[in-house]
Design brief:
Blueprint (H helix, E strand, L loop, with lengths): L1 H24 L8 H13 L3 E4 L8 E7 L3 E6 L13 H16 L2 H4 L1 E7 L9 H6 L8 E3 L2 E3 L3 E3 L4 E10 L14 H15 L7 E9 L10 E10 L2 H22 L3 E5 L11 H13 L6 E4 L7 H5 L4 E2 L2 E3 L11 H6 L3 H23 L1 H16 L1
Parallel strand pairs: 3-4, 3-5, 5-13, 6-14, 7-12
Antiparallel strand pairs: 1-2, 2-4, 8-10, 8-11, 9-10
Helix pairs in contact: 1-2, 1-3, 1-11, 3-11, 6-7, 8-11, 11-12
Amino acid sequence: MKQKIISFLSTSKDDIKNLCTYLYEHPETSYNEFKSSEYICDLLHKYNFEIERNFLDIENAFIAKKGTGHPKICYLCEYDAIENDGHITGHNMVTAMSVAAALALGTVIDEIGGSVVLIGCPGEYLGGTKGTMVKQGIFDDIDVVMLAHPDISTCESGASSAIIPLGLKFESEHKLSFLNKNDYTSLDAVLLTLNILNSIKKGFPDNLEINSIVSNAGYTTLLLPSNSEIKFCIRASDTKTANYAYDKIREIASYVTKLINIPNKFFLYESPNKELVTNRTLNRLFSHNLKENGIININPARDIYAGLSIGDVSHKVPCIHPYISIIENDTIQYGSLDFAKATISPFALKQCITVATSLALTGTDLIENKSLLNEVQTEFSNIKNN
């Protein structure tokens, strides 16, 4: 099977290169990935994948399948870019690696049994759509999920932050300022909330951070502020701690409302993300295949400050999110225009094919060796139960 996968990727690497280059040259912002989604789906159709576009009525999402039954090996695509900067975090390469892995595993899936699934997930920069897919039960029937991410160094899969993007709005009556100067306003409620939060932060856990901004003060010279808003970014090492902060903010807002009689309303301004829980057994298996295929220098697990929507998935099914170096020039910084350009270099394409081979072989190992899959799932169950 290994030779078939290697041979397939060798003969189809132009398709993978063209995919990566097309996405680089046609960057689209979150939830506007129309051309990107269409190009990816057309390529999958060429290789006889069964495709559902606008999956779950999410525009530009898709699910593609090949094979039947279990084990079901799933890869994920992210293909949004940042306005005016393009693919500075390499989502074009994320997609290229995942598509190549799915196509490669798809060439042998009928011989070894099981299924390969590829899911297109738009809008990652705005919290992503994976959380919605989790709530819809899409991953309930999946055995493992893998997504490799381009970077400036190769690292094993680690953890990410839990993020709650919480909005709080206070609303008071519309009144003329010069006639009602002693009345409490929505802006008073906002400032009081922030002052109380500031005063009690000393007692918060060390692994918790809350950043806030007054996103709307609702102020004019003639009218009292009647509609004022705060946006909080709650960031923690785990969801339990993030929820602790969420509850505290709700308590403060409730107290402020009771104290000065200004109603409040909470909302999420982006999708929240749980922390990524890496499956160590799956991570070890992928790293072994990566070394077998020529990427020897793999750094220890990397924990990142950012939130990842795959974190939600990792609480539902065994997951990995390793990082892969795509640069030869160590002066290139991640998140730069030079990094975006590096995603379409010959070296990046070579890394892409190696990673795709390793991802596909990891899927093959899990399908052919039930004890390996059982080990992955046992670890997942133990963590979940604890």
